[in-house]
């Protein structure tokens, strides 16, 4: 019988099928997980050049500034922290790497994708001695570990958090950002919830099952990409299994930018989308815009009064002993 990989409960139900995988949810701790887990050959093939999206030049500056503010806030970094060791795990296009460098930290970078690595080397001067390939072979200890949308891709989240704990200095901190399983905010992003999830659910399930899944709280699990989605109860269990004491675990949330993945954003972004095809598309989607703007106003109001739950969750861990 299927067991929850976090709490061990056998009280599991299947949300949907997706290709050769079942997407399950634990009734006790709310963990969403794929079964079986894809084998390593499938994953290696899937991630070939997948993670790397070349950022637009003009977006880079803004991205880095935003990252800097984010890191200062999340880790409470002060000028006196200069020279402390920072690891950006799954660093992708390097915005956190560059931001942490600008905060005068001693920054290490990890990513599986060779293209991403090459980009960060070329653009931001990353050198080989600051590249971490295997966590357990670094020989380094860190004061800050940043992991942004990585854990949901991995087959063993407990082992991952434990490996991170092992490379932390005393009083070192880990920030793990990941999609929030079961959130309701994503309903206001139909380009994600319908286009990415619902249509795929329809492909592999009877329509009634797909519709029912859509109106459940969101699953955010699409193997071989996301193998899990998490919420506060199961993240706490995972952190505890990885060796953290309850007093060292803190959970918070983040919301998606209001206009991200919106039709309006594409509509106004002439610099990015200026082909003939996107011009024609603009004419076609024009009537949708007033509805989208209304839905965004509704989203803003409901977010302010906390009626819709945020699409992202942050696990903040501090190793105090
Ligand atoms: Zn569970």
- Largest sheet, strands/sense/barrel: 6 strands, mixed
Strand segment count: 10
| Helical proportion, percent range | 25-40%
Intertermini distance: 38 Å
Could you state the oligomeric state of the chains shown? single chain
Q: How many helical stretches?
A: 11
Stretches where pLDDT falls below 50 for ≥5 residues?
none
Strand order of the largest sheet: 5-4-6-7-10-9
| Cα-based radius of gyration, to the nearest Å | 20 Å
Write down the overall mean pLDDT.
92
Please sum up the structure shown.
This protein is of the alpha/beta class and 321 residues long. It has helices at 40-46, 57-75, 95-102, 114-124, 157-166, 190-204, 207-214, 232-241, 263-268, 276-285, 289-304, and strands at residues 12-18, 21-26, 32-35, 85-89, 106-110, 142-148, 168-179, 228-229, 249-254, 312-318.
Task: Describe the protein's architecture and organization.
- The chain is α/β, with parallel strands linked by helices.
- The protein has 11 helices and 10 strands.
- The protein has helices spanning 40-46, 57-75, 95-102, 114-124, 157-166, 190-204, 207-214, 232-241, 263-268, 276-285, 289-304; strands at 12-18, 21-26, 32-35, 85-89, 106-110, 142-148, 168-179, 228-229, 249-254, 312-318.
- A 6-stranded mixed β-sheet has the order 5-4-6-7-10-9, sandwiched between helices. It has a 4-stranded antiparallel β-sheet with strand order 1-2-3-8.
- Strand 2 and strand 3 (32-35) form a beta hairpin.
- It starts with 11 loop residues before the first strand and ends with a strand.
- The protein binds zinc ion.
- Zinc ion (ZN) binds next to loops.
